[in-house]
Amino acid sequence: MTRSVAVRAYAKINLHLDVLGRRGDGYHDLSTIFQEIDLADELRIAEAPGDTDALVVDGAVHIPADGRNLVLKAIRRLRDHTNGRLPVLAVRLTKTIPDGAGLGGGSSDAAAAIVAANELFRLGLSCGECIEVAAGIGSDCAFFVRGGTQSATGRGELLSPARRTREFHVLLVVPHCRVATIDAYGALDPEELGPVTDGGALRQWLAGADVPVAPRNTFQSGVRHRHPAIDATLSAMESTNPLFCLLSGSGSGCFALYATAEDANRAAEAMPSAARLVRVCRPVGGRSGVEQP
Question: What string of DSSP letters covers 171-208?
């Protein structure tokens, strides 16, 4: 019997994002808190005949289905890491997470493929080994192996769990524009680099403490200036009295947090109609093995 599994790959938002400065290797050091939300892609992974992995992508015309796709890169890295014990795979990826939105969809897909294949084919990799494989694919890919709420430094691959007891609802709005990460870095004001957000206060707030928080995203000012649709979205969010609102990652996705579903749904009705996605989401607690649809 052919072995197969279907799994979810969740999106993320950045509850804060400080770009600290450029590193000697060309990357930038970051300080952020990742939070998974219940917007998810779906992967169906099965053992396949032949000698070449195959990927079919549904629901997104902009996503390549060839070797550029992070899912296939993840499978190749996992096979190399396990000395060829991973069989040839056929993967069907159904996209729901918008691309070019700072929501980590491609990285999440890759991490889900690693975790699912490890369990389905009993490869015996620990969580730490899965993180090691994922970290070689993309800066935020390692986060999605465990998911949930995590603080991150370095390029985003140095992770530590963050306790979250606070409940909130997330209004996610993705304008039609797409933001290339390289362009977002190009728009950074060097004077804005550095640790500005009090990440410690934000972690306390997430854990339920009644402390003031003022999260920020270093990318937001430059991206907002270059993309009127993002500026209009954030302005609309700011007018709805959220707990706070921000750009996610390098954009174009924007989010606002609300204490209740009623507040979030009411705010959703006030958002610009010309958007790729307007959705009220909930935070996700984290991965404990393969999560099937």
Answer: EEEEES----HHHHHHT--GGG-S--S-HHHHHHHHTT
